[in-house]
Backbone:
């Protein structure tokens, strides 16, 4: 990620369902500073997904994880001496 993007590590997530509306609610906890403990993590607004969106998200995450695992890890490029 060389474009200067700020990265917030995920510290956890919570799912709830609203059966009468057929929605899955998702809150993601994330760490916003290097000195923050995971138990002090911020939360995203509550996100609502349909069952189909939840399945598509699950599949996209699985495919992305498989691609990551297929590539050998290498050290990030740093300053050259």
Residues:
């Amino acid at each position: 990620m060389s474009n200067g993007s700020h990265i917030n590590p995920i510290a956890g997530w919570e799912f709830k369902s609203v059966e009468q509306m057929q929605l899955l609610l998702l809150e993601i906890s994330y760490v916003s500073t290097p000195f923050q403990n995971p138990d002090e993590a911020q939360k995203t607004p509550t996100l609502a997904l349909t069952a189909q969106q939840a399945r598509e998200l699950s599949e996209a995450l699985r495919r992305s994880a498989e691609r990551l695992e297929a590539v050998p890890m290498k050290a990030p490029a740093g300053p050259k001496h």
